[in-house]
Amino acid sequence: MAWFRKDKKPLKARKNKREVPADVFEQCPGCGEVLYRERLARSLNVCESCGHHLRISAEGYLSILLDPGSFEELDGDLRASDPLEFVDVKHYTNRIATAESTGRSEAVVTAAGRLDGIEIAIAAMDFSFIGGSMGSVVGEKISRACRSALQRSVPFVIVSQSGGARMQEGIYSLMQMAKTSTVLARLHEASIPFISVLTNPTTGGVTASHSMLGDVNLAEPNALIGFTGPRVIEETIKQELPEGFQRSEFQLEHGMVDLVVDRRDLKETVAVILRHQLVGWTE
């Protein structure tokens, strides 16, 4: 009968319920912990629970390493072209335009500045721009920054974050390996310090050229560092690779990098190394 039935009324949302923006939190890829973005930024995008280093931009590394107010960008007007008129599933020129729409002009930012009071030239790569791939402009900007260090007799620092050579530029991209390596050799001949910082990931032609040529090679914890990816190697040799293969700690154990450094200690570590090198250089 009707008086035994109770009409269901739709539930109404509480008016005082606070809406939390989706970009307030981020989940750590390492441990799954839900991280508060503002607190994460204060720890330089390093998870305080497990120490996982989340990826940051080139500008992020420059703000960590350079003293406030000392940043002076070099060759910021250089832009990539399409010398081979490369056509793939998504045309190369369209990919460049999409990448540039994020506010970046290329996969590397080069600058002059001071690191803990030490005058340096620096190049910081950015994975968000076509996978941090090294095309002709990336190679040219790194080479020019290196020549600037050579002319001013100041140390040079490269922060690498790349998937390797940019295949859409073919031989033009591969030539950048020789170009950057050659100008770094001139820096070495002049006894000017060069510090290479390898972050996650540093692979392909970037690893096979300037990234592994530092007087001191530093790496962030658990960064993927290698020429070819582990999956491709396993399929080629038909063997299972050891645990942690191509990670920073594995490379340290096998002599490919000199030190694994927490991002929060990076500036201090680079400053100590440079001061030690500069004392030996002046003597």
Structural class: alpha/beta
Total of DSSP H or I helical runs spanning 4+ residues: 9
Into which percent range does the helicity of residues fall? 25-40%
Would you tell me which CATH topology of the largest domain applies?
Answer: 2-enoyl-CoA Hydratase, Chain A, domain 1
Key phrases:
2 domains, 8-stranded mixed beta sheet, two-stranded antiparallel ribbon, 2-enoyl-CoA Hydratase, Chain A, domain 1, alpha/beta, 283 residues, 34% helix, globular
Tell me the layout of helices and strands:
Elements (H helix, E strand, L loop, with lengths): L24 E3 L6 E3 H6 L15 H8 L6 E3 L17 H9 L7 E8 L2 E8 L10 H17 L3 E7 L7 H20 L4 E10 H4 L8 E4 L5 E2 L3 H8 L10 H6 L5 E2 L5 H17 L1
Parallel strand pairs: 5-6, 6-7, 7-8, 7-9, 8-10
Antiparallel strand pairs: 1-2, 3-4, 4-5
Textual characterization of the structure:
The chain has 283 residues and is of the alpha/beta class. It has 2 domains: 23-54, no CATH class; 56-282, 2-enoyl-CoA Hydratase, Chain A, domain 1. Helices cover 34% and strands 18% of the residues. It is built from 9 helices and 10 strands. The protein has helices at 37-42, 58-65, 92-100, 136-152, 170-189, 204-207, 230-237, 248-253, 266-282; strands at residues 25-27, 34-36, 72-74, 108-115, 118-125, 156-162, 194-203, 216-219, 225-226, 259-260. Strands 3, 4, 5, 6, 7, 8, 9 and 10 form an 8-stranded mixed sheet that branches. The longest helix has 20 residues, at 170-189. The N and C termini lie far apart (102 Å).
